[in-house]
């Protein structure tokens, strides 16, 4: 799948997780805020990895760090060398 589609799906996940938290959804969808916190923790680690390994490759470090936090590996891949 292409990166644009995966970023769109990730953005949809964040919208659903925040909506579930704000509206207090019940049932299976009630777990979305907890899953969102876990994903946010993983994305913080990815931002740290970006900061250490790839910040010199970025033209706008703060924006790229924010985008890595939101989209995770799907934004981080643009800094990784291609095989």
TrEMBL record:
Transmembrane ranges?
Answer: 34-54
Q: Which UniProt keywords apply?
A: Membrane, Transmembrane, Transmembrane helix
A single Pfam family, by name?
DUF1145
* InterPro entries, sorted: DUF1145
Kindly provide the name given to this protein in its UniProt entry. Answer: DUF1145 domain-containing protein
Native organism = Thalassolituus maritimus
